[in-house]
Amino acid sequence: MTSQHLTEAATSRFVRIREGELDLQLHYNDCGQGERVVVMLHGSGPGASGWANFNRNVAPLVDAGFRVILLDCPGWSKSDSIVCEGSRSDLNATALKGLLDALDIERVDIIGNSMGGHSAVAFALRYPARLGKLILMGGGTGGASLFTPMPTEGIKRLQGLYRAPTIDNLKAMMDIFVYDTSDLTEELFQARLDNMLARRDHLENFVKSIEANPRQFPDFSPRLGEITAETLVIWGRQDRFVPMDTGLRLVAGLPNAELHLFNRCGHWAQWEHADKFNRMVLDFLTH
Ligand SMILES: O=C(O)CCC(=O)/C=C/C=C(\O)C(=O)O
């Protein structure tokens, strides 16, 4: 498959996983046929999915010969819904392990966005032999910020949107999601709203989850030194969801990490600065 044939519908797949306490149907997109596999893990916003988060980033990797798998985490998009009362980072890591076993894939590189970054770090700690390189963007660990009161304004708007999924609340969240809002079209808002409203069970279960455990994403700082994978940390300087000093904490703790900070960039570096992001990712993965 070349990138010409990369549509959501053409790459959409389902799999049943039974892994640990999980017995779930998961949805994923399977793109390209390379031997080397890159998994992309999306963030936790309402209506997020692998395809919604990474649609600007798949084609360059497929054209470079990678197989790219976009996992919809449990509780998002077309995957089964779930109430998570413990660590969602670990739950997603377990789901990814189940997916890789079902697809008979031994080792992957992971690109994680926000919650996807937290989940990638959980995967690195639990299944180190299954991981090649790690790219963490706007996420990687929960925990407090030195400079920004928690929850951040972005997370407050995100949770408000889960509780009241209206177009006005969606726009209020997206308004501080990116640095430059001029690229946010009515079409994008509508697609995101449709995704959200298609699965009210996901919205309700997310609210039940944070009520049962407000700290869905644990602080992995004390364990970062255990991760030997080469890691590229990418952050937006104006990230109003997960503040950039979280990125500094990651590079302070991860022994093989480097950091790139995009200026004029919010929480979605892979989308706002897609061309440069894609070049950096390819360079990092191939050298
Ligand atoms: O609470 C956290 O630390 C993670 C927040 C998060 O994952 C937000 C992500 C939002 C998106 O990437 C999205 O909605 O697309």
Automatic annotation (TrEMBL):
Single GO molecular function: 2-hydroxy-6-oxonona-2,4,7-trienedioate hydrolase activity
GO cellular component assignments: cytoplasm
Catalyzed reactions: (2Z,4E)-2-hydroxy-6-oxonona-2,4-dienedioate + H2O = (2Z)-2-hydroxypenta-2,4-dienoate + succinate + H(+); (2Z,4E,7E)-2-hydroxy-6-oxonona-2,4,7-trienedioate + H2O = (2Z)-2-hydroxypenta-2,4-dienoate + fumarate + H(+)
Residues at the site labelled Transition state stabilizer: S114
Catalytic residue positions: H267
Site (Catalytic role in ketonization of the dienol substrate (substrate destabilization)): R192
Residue stretches making up the AB hydrolase-1 domain: 37-274
The enzyme's E.C. designation: 3.7.1.14
Biological process, per Gene Ontology: 3-phenylpropionate catabolic process
Any Pfam family: Abhydrolase_1
Keywords, alphabetical: Aromatic hydrocarbons catabolism, Hydrolase
Pathway: Aromatic compound metabolism; 3-phenylpropanoate degradation
Domain of life: Bacteria
InterPro entries hit by this protein: AB_hydrolase_1, AB_hydrolase_fold, MhpC_alpha/beta_hydrolase
Family: Belongs to the AB hydrolase superfamily. MhpC family.
Subunit structure: Homodimer.
PANTHER family: ALPHA_BETA-HYDROLASES SUPERFAMILY PROTEIN (PTHR43689:SF8), HYDROLASE (PTHR43689)
Task performed by this protein: Catalyzes the cleavage of the C5-C6 bond of 2-hydroxy-6-oxononadienedioate and 2-hydroxy-6-oxononatrienedioate, a dienol ring fission product of the bacterial meta-cleavage pathway for degradation of phenylpropionic acid.
Record protein name field: 2-hydroxy-6-oxononadienedioate/2-hydroxy-6-oxononatrienedioate hydrolase
Species annotation: Zobellella denitrificans
Gene that encodes the chain: mhpC
